[in-house]
Design goal:
Blueprint (H helix, E strand, L loop, with lengths): L1 H19 L6 H15 L8 H24 L5 E8 L15 E8 L4 H11 L5 H5 L4 H4 L9 H7 L17 H37 L3 E4 L5 H17 L1 H8 L3 E5 L3 E2 L5 E4 L4 H9 L5 H17 L4 E2 L11 H16 L2 H8 L8 E4 L7 E2 L4 E4 L5 H40 L3 E4 L5 H14 L11 E5 L3 E2 L5 E4 L9
Parallel strand pairs: 3-4, 4-6, 7-8, 8-10, 11-12, 12-14
Antiparallel strand pairs: 1-2, 5-6, 9-10, 13-14
Length: about 500
Amino acid sequence: MLATLFRKSCRLRQRVACAGIMRYLTTQEVSAALRPFYFSVHPDLFGQFPNERAVNEDSLKQLSEYVMSLQVSGKARPIQLTFFVRQQDSVTESFSVWPGMMKEVRVELREQSLRAMVVTLLQSCGLSLDYVRSIPVSPAETRPFRPIHWHPSYYQATGRADPNRRVHRPRPQLMLRTWLQLNMAQSRQKREGVRGVEEDIGRLCELLHKALGLKEIRWDSVWGVAHFRGCLKSFLRLYAQHPKLVSSALKGRSLLFSSATGVTRLGEIVLSSEDVPTSWMRLLASVGSYDSVLERLPYMEKKLSELLNNICIVRQKKTYSHVMAEDYELLLNKLLNSLRRCQDHVSRTFGHTDLSELQMVVDGENAPMTLTTTGMFLIPASLPGTLVVDFIQANRQKALAVSAQMDSCLKEEAESIERCVATLELLELSKDETVTPQQMALCCDRLTREYWRFCVSLNQSRLHVSHYYTVKQDGQICIPWDWVGEEEP
């Protein structure tokens, strides 16, 4: 009798499931609905926070598998995800994220339809549901699904697996060879699609170099190369209208197109790809007023160094996140005032010890105080001077040891990159800022040794070493530095 009831329930569940896997939302509709979510949790937004970035990368991978399972089979195993979300009110011109501009969100996904999954995800992150509500609901979606829950004694008597019992199984790791075989065609197709765009960019950059005497022109944005070409064309039109002003403002300088407009602490002119040429013009007309600020910065850095026994002050170059000159001056001034008030503590802690072999970066207002993998101290300007002194003293020997190894690590990294480019015949090989020289060298050495296992040619490809797999808009291939080979478990 029990077996008969079980067979009937199975047939009923199969009929309901077959009705439930009708196409509710298309792949394009799911992508469009989740676009605000991706813009709030994308790992590139958290470049300064490696822990939060790693959490988002792992959760996005699990979410992708969950969505794929729903699209293919109409069901998926429940999962719990954690995301660090950029706050809605922090959506400004800058793509950087500060600690006060993010929140941690935990989401449990048990839904067995794409629509319900999308709604749960957007609601958990406080995002709008207007687009999802605008999509008509199919009759199959409104049909209630009533799963049958058997008593645990039934599964004990029959030896069958309880579908409601959560079993934690390790997720199968994605192999590099498998991923390349699935995505190389897409990469080459995108490369061919942007070839003409890149040729236009090269021509426009050469024209601007000759006309303005620029040190360099750089695209430093998360958007694709088509946006870069559009910015160059807009800038050329601006130059044609105001040739003398633009020439005097940019001669001998570096020009960057990024997500903000201003003059960086390195003296680079940054124009936002989201601004109109009128905003660019206002900055270029006032570039001369920033020269006095840039002249004061070395003097302030020297004073800061003297307050900390000649520690070396470094201006770190970052991608997608630029510190403007006037903001950097305020940060230096705040830290200078803080250290001036605790010079007795500095003397008691360091005495006459020379700290010139140590490197320090003044890194924002509320950034975490850390020692980087390259041996540099990242110090926020808002901390009391005593805490800064104590942190440097506690980590001084470790910083010296890391710095001593760094020269050999950088040399090993450069040699590994050179061998990898030559062996795989790559057009370009780059890495994320969060990938250490040791990790990059290890990744390149493995690629050089095992390239024959991929069964895919990477000839003339652009390869970027990061923490996740993806193919960018221009066909650039991103792979994790710790990629898994076919011979590994």
